[in-house]
Write a structure and sequence with these properties.
488 residues, mainly alpha
């Protein structure tokens, strides 16, 4: 009992002092309260200012009502409906863009084909003018107008907004009229696979063209060029075992020009292999241009190495195509040279056409004593000037850029010095100086290179001037080149 009394006494001595209400109030005023726990009923006495900064009265808003399950489902359905409408609009916009892109692609392809057909028609119509064939000229003109109007209608249709004549439920690519989409899937896949191999595999096309017969190779090239080239004055050597390619007829003699124009290259297999299966390119370093050059260089090299009868004509036609594809900066200088030749060589013409020039030439060269010497000096000067123009390498002025491009690619495919030398003879002598240049000299208005429709179109060249001046220059330069080549 005594121990319990001592413990209670010790506990009373250690207990905290008990505060009165006045002490508690003073302590509460001195102690800083948190803003959320500050007592609202207690305030400082009116005679004593409240310590610390003044506090603004804060009004607490009532919490928002919790949405019910039905409200949540309504909001979700509204958002879903908005997303569905947005996706439908995007799908429709994408479909319309596809249709418009397809129309524009078809329109550009038709424009390119119309340009090539127009270049071919340009040659034929000039021949009709020279032969005074008004009936054929008129029919070709009307046919060309019909084809051009059809292409322009396609162009206008491509510029229309597909949203004006399309239904929201239209299927992808419906209404484009694409031929491939009308074929069964199996046939379409096989056709696409075949075209891809022709486009990208050089040996694939070379093997198939090399396996063609002479008549099939001739049919492959007959529909490409309508106007027959100027006949060569030199006997052309024939490497192959078949007929001489220079005696083969061209398409202008075998096919009605108006029917060829209206066919619009659909019945021209070589044009399809050269142009249709490749997109329209621009620079020679484009991927598609490099692919096309590699494929056809391999094919030409195969035909040349194997000496297939009729293969030389295919090679020469491919050179024609590449010359048409590229610009030739030397055409302006050639036009000036031809104008000078017609002016200086007018003394060779008979009658009043060359009388004044003949008198002037005799006066200037009175000491020669012979008109033949005057003519020889004139033709020698023209041949030298023309050869100087062809060998100029500044900015591609000399040779056509297309010839340099495909010619170098063919030579790179050949193995052996003798094959390369023979290929150079075929390209330079058989094509440049026996096929291309004679036609340009005698019929300059027929030149249809890239972005060029004829030379000297503003001048009239008589048949006598073509024969006695331009034709003689072409014959002399051709003979000179062949004499040099046979010595190699």
């Amino acid at each position: 009992m005594k121990d319990l009394s001592n413990g209670l006494a010790s506990h009373q001595r250690l207990a905290l002092p008990v505060r009165s209400e006045s002490d508690s109030a003073v302590a509460d005023q001195a102690r800083p309260y948190p803003f959320s726990s500050m007592p609202q009923s207690r305030s400082a006495p009116s005679s004593v200012a409240a310590p610390g900064p003044a506090h603004h009265e804060v009004k607490l808003e009532s919490p928002a009502p919790i949405p019910s399950d039905d409200d949540k489902e309504g909001q979700a359905l509204a958002e879903l409906a908005h997303l569905v409408r947005l996706q439908t609009d995007l799908d429709q916009t994408h479909l319309q863009a596809q249709v418009r892109l397809h129309r524009e692609t078809v329109s550009f392809a038709l424009a390119s084909r119309l340009l090539r057909c127009g270049q071919t028609l340009h040659r034929t119509m000039i021949d009709n003018l020279r032969s005074d064939d008004k009936k054929t000229f008129g029919s070709l003109y009307n046919a060309f107008q019909d084809v051009r109007n059809s292409c322009q209608a396609t162009r206008r249709h491509a510029s229309l907004d597909p949203a004006m004549n399309s239904e929201p439920s239209m299927k992808p690519l419906s209404g484009t009229g694409d031929f491939m989409h009308t074929l069964p899937p199996r046939v379409s896949d096989q056709l696409l696979h075949f075209l891809e191999k022709v486009r990208s595999s050089p040996n694939y096309l070379a093997d198939r063209i090399a396996s063609l017969s002479t008549s099939e190779l001739s049919a492959l090239t007959t529909s490409y060029r309508t106007s027959s080239p100027v006949a060569s004055v030199m006997p052309q050597p024939n490497r192959g075992k078949g007929p001489n390619p220079w005696n083969l007829h061209h398409s202008g003699q075998d096919q009605v020009p108006a029917a060829k124009l209206l066919s619009f290259e659909r019945h021209d297999p070589l044009s399809s292999l050269l142009y249709t299966i490749y997109p329209r390119g621009g620079r020679r370093d484009d991927a598609e241009e490099l692919r096309r050059t590699d494929v056809w260089a391999t094919t030409c090299a195969r035909l040349f190495v194997e000496g297939i009868p009729g293969g030389d004509e295919v090679i020469l036609t491919v050179l024609d195509a590449w010359a048409d594809l590229r610009e030739w900066p030397g055409k302006a200088r050639l036009e000036l040279l031809l104008s000078q030749a017609l002016q200086d060589g007018a003394f060779l013409l008979d009658g009043s056409e060359g009388h004044a020039a003949h008198v002037k030439a005799q006066t200037l060269l009175a000491g020669t004593g012979s008109s033949t010497a005057v003519a020889e000096r004139f033709f020698s000067k023209m041949v030298v000037d023309l050869l100087e123009l062809m060998k100029t390498q500044q900015a591609g002025i000399g040779l056509p850029e297309g010839l340099l491009e495909i010619g170098q690619a063919i030579l790179q495919k050949l193995d052996g010095q003798r094959e390369e030398q023979a290929a150079r003879t075929l390209i330079i002598c058989n094509w440049l100086f026996s096929r291309f240049l004679p036609e340009v000299l005698v019929k300059p208005e027929l030149l249809t290179l890239h972005k060029t429709l004829g030379l000297m179109t503003g001048q009239h060249i008589s048949e006598q001037a073509r024969r006695k001046i331009l034709g003689e220059i072409a014959a002399r330069i051709q003979k000179h080149v062949w004499d040099v080549t046979l010595e190699w």
